[in-house]
């Protein structure tokens, strides 16, 4: 057992010196420097006191030898302190110097004072473990021979009385030194190894945390990049599709276009769900509060789902308390996302009947302009309902209820999980009541600040007027003298934007990179810039920064609008802080584009045309025939659709661009 304890101690000691050798080296050098000063001062002080207090005191030659050794000790450690030295070399140097000093103390304790007890050596033996750090074997190899040498010198130079006393003092000092050395060494080793273990654990934890952060960052970057790469062609397709819906009056073509729009928006929603879930899991989802119009938000929600509900033969009911304050302050983007996810789910899982969206509110005891209201939002449906056993799965990510029964319903299984997490960020939670086979009701309360207590009024009446105005859409203005620069690395997006502005008669110049745009800005004067945010090489923000930094450029202070597919809470403020006046989200809608241009173009160049109706173009359609018999055949693929309109050059080219973007061969 003793052998094992010694072996374990020696293993720990070896590990201690492996880990802390550099630190031990610095400690020994520092102590030696300090001891060289202290020992020299003590020696000189003792000599001076002896001269003053002891009459007839004379210095023995041994004292001169000790003084010489102390001077050498002092010189080495004071004037050569910054020298490079290894641990082994310092050990040899220390043993020689300390050994010389200790031998001189033995000689002083024996030769000059044969009739006096030894004092210096026993004291310095005990002190050695405190002034020098090394392995136990070094301590033993240093102290043991010195003690034997001291006993031999006593036996030669002292009487039996003082010899016996000195032997007892030396042996006692040796035993005390051994005990103190073992104790000190054990404390040093345990403390150092504990610190090393803690540091190792801390380093591993830091490394693991760094790896997790790096992995999470890589995942976020990958998802962001992939979402951008996927959104780009989808937005291009939806943009071209918007042109078809807007410009052509053909029932069959419009039907195809609306199907493309529905499928594209569904795909965009799925991408957004995956990206949002990733942000929430990484703890990077933040709320960004802005002032917003409640009626406008409800209108957007209805517009997003109304067509889908009608296509399934469902009645979409909307009930809004007419006394609700219309101007609120909160994260409208995330609130709209929560409601839209619930609405979309309700329509997806309802085959007959209706979906009912109800808006109400609760106020506190004090009504003031900057007070708060609790929005009560409830969405009911007559769908398939949820089993009691499936309620726990409802908010689990990537979990879909009744997978077999609902296999034809698109979705990732993330929607309700995202809803619950977003509501948690808003200090709320979703409540669900459901009866299997009859329908479900989803409701929640969310606090919003008020900015105006003016009531929202009759929402349905206001919505009907809005729909009527959209059906009778007319170009808002013409600006033949205005000139704008459109910057986008995607050629299809450039075609879409140019065609959306065709009826405004604005002069458009395009660039496919930030570098090309800056060159054009040096050569031509523009009234406004439309700049895509994410472009390879130089992105939109860098391009604008370079433009704003160029004091000699004629377009330095011209208004710039960011074009982005990555819409997020607080986007407007982010882009404004980057130097943009505003932003537009992709896919770009014609009316949104016209309204933002109307706001930022010079007034003297804008001619308002609110009464000018938008005239849709009726394309020439070729009906396929067999044996000269006119038989209209069902179109089976996109090639057939394109060939049907081959006599309409603009539409034929537009469908061709769509096919090119989707990698469909003609």
Describe the structure.
- The protein is of the alpha/beta class.
- It has three domains: 208 residues, no CATH class; 188 residues, Heat Shock Protein 90; 145 residues, Response regulator (Rossmann fold, 3-Layer(aba) Sandwich).
- It contains 18 helices and 16 strands.
- The strands form four sheets. Strands 1, 2, 3, 4, 5, 6 and 7 form a seven-stranded mixed sheet that branches. Strands 10-9-11-12-13 form a five-stranded parallel sheet, with helices on both faces. It has a two-stranded antiparallel ribbon with strand order 8-14.
- About 3% of the residues have low confidence.
Structural class based on helices, strands and sheet pairing: alpha/beta
Radius of gyration: 44 Å
Tally of contiguous helical segments: 18
- Strand-residue fraction? 5-15%
Mean pLDDT, to the nearest integer, reads 78
Coarse morphology: elongated
> How many domains make up the coordinates?
3
Question: Helices, strands, pairings?
Answer:
Layout: H1 2-53, H2 61-79, H3 87-110, H4 120-131, H5 136-157, H6 160-247, H7 251-281, E1 290-293, H8 294-311, E2 315-320, E3 325-330, H9 332-348, E4 354-363, E5 372-381, H10 415-425, E6 431-435, E7 439-455, H11 459-471, E8 477-478, E9 483-487, H12 491-500, E10 507-511, H13 514-523, E11 528-532, H14 540-549, E12 560-564, H15 571-577, E13 582-585, H16 590-600, E14 607-608, E15 625-626, E16 629-630, H17 638-644, H18 649-661
Parallel strand pairs: 2-4, 9-10, 9-11, 11-12, 12-13
Antiparallel strand pairs: 1-3, 3-7, 4-5, 5-7, 6-7, 8-14, 15-16
Helix pairs in contact: 1-2, 1-6, 2-3, 3-4, 3-5, 4-6, 5-6, 6-7, 6-12, 6-18, 7-10, 8-9, 9-10, 13-14, 17-18
């Amino acid at each position: 057992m003793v052998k094992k304890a010694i072996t374990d101690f020696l293993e720990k000691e070896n590990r201690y010196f492996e880990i802390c050798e550099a630190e031990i080296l610095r400690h020994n050098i520092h102590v030696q420097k300090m001891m060289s000063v202290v020992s020299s001062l003590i020696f000189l002080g003792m000599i001076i006191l002896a001269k003053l207090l002891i009459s007839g005191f004379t210095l023995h030659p041994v004292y001169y030898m000790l003084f010489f050794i102390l001077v050498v000790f002092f010189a080495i450690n004071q004037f050569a302190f910054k020298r490079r030295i290894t641990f082994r070399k310092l050990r040899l140097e220390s043993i020689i110097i300390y050994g010389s000093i200790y031998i001189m103390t033995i000689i002083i304790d024996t030769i000059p004072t044969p009739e006096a007890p030894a004092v210096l050596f026993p004291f310095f033996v005990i002190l050695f473990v405190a002034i020098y750090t090394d392995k136990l074997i070094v301590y033993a190899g240093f102290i043991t021979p010195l003690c034997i040498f001291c006993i031999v010198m006593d036996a030669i130079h002292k009487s039996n009385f003082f010899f016996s006393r000195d032997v007892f003092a030396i042996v006692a000092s040796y035993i005390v030194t051994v005990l103190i050395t073992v104790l000190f060494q054990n404390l040093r080793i345990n403390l150092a190894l504990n610190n090393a273990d803690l540091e190792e654990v801390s380093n591993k934890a830091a490394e693991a945390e760094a790896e997790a952060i790096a992995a999470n960052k890589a995942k976020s970057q990958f998802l962001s990049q992939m979402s951008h790469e996927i959104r780009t062609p989808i937005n291009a397709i939806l943009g071209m599709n918007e042109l078809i819906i807007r410009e052509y009056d053909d029932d069959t073509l419009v039907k195809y276009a609306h199907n493309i729009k529905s499928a594209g928006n569904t795909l965009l929603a799925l991408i957004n769900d995956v990206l949002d879930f990733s942000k929430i899991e990484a703890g990077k989802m933040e709320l960004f509060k802005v002032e917003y119009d409640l009626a406008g938000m409800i209108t957007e929600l209805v517009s997003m789902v109304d067509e889908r509900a009608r296509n399934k033969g469902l009645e979409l009911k909307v009930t809004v308390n007419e006394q609700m304050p219309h101007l609120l302050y909160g994260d409208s983007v995330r609130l709209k996302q929560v409601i839209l996810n619930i609405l979309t789910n309700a329509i997806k899982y309802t085959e007959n009947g209706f979906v009912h969206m109800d808006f109400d509110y609760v106020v506190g005891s004090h009504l003031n302009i900057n007070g708060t209201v609790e929005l009560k939002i409830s969405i009911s449906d007559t769908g398939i309902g949820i089993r009691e056993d499936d309620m726990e799965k409802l908010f689990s990510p990537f979990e879909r209820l009744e997978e077999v029964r609902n296999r034809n319903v698109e979705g990732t299984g993330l929607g309700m999980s995202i809803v619950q997490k977003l509501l948690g960020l808003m200090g709320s939670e979703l409540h669900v009541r459901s009866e299997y086979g009859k329908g479900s009701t989803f409701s929640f309360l969310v606090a919003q600040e008020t900015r105006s207590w003016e009531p929202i009024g009759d929402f349905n009446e206001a919505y009907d007027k809005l729909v009527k105005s959209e059906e009778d859409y007319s170009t808002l203005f013409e600006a033949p003298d205005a000139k704008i620069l459109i910057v986008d690395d995607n050629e299809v997006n450039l075609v879409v934007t140019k065609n959306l502005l065709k009826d405004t008669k604005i002069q458009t110049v395009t660039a496919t990179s930030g570098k090309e745009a800056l060159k054009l800005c040096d050569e031509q004067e523009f009234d406004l810039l439309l700049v895509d945010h994410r472009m390879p090489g130089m992105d939109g923000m860098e391009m604008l920064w370079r433009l704003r930094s160029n004091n000699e450029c004629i377009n330095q202070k011209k208004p710039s609008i960011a074009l982005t597919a990555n819409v997020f809470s607080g986007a407007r403020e982010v882009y404004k802080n980057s130097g943009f006046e505003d932003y537009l989200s992709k896919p770009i809608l014609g009316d949104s584009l016209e309204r933002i241009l109307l706001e930022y173009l010079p007034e003297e160049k804008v001619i308002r045309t609110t009464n000018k109706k938008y005239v849709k173009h009726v394309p020439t359609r070729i009906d396929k025939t067999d044996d000269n018999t006119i038989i209209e055949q069902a179109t089976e693929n996109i090639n057939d659709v394109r060939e049907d309109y081959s006599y309409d050059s603009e539409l034929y080219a537009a469908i061709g661009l769509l096919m090119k973007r989707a990698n469909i061969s003609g």
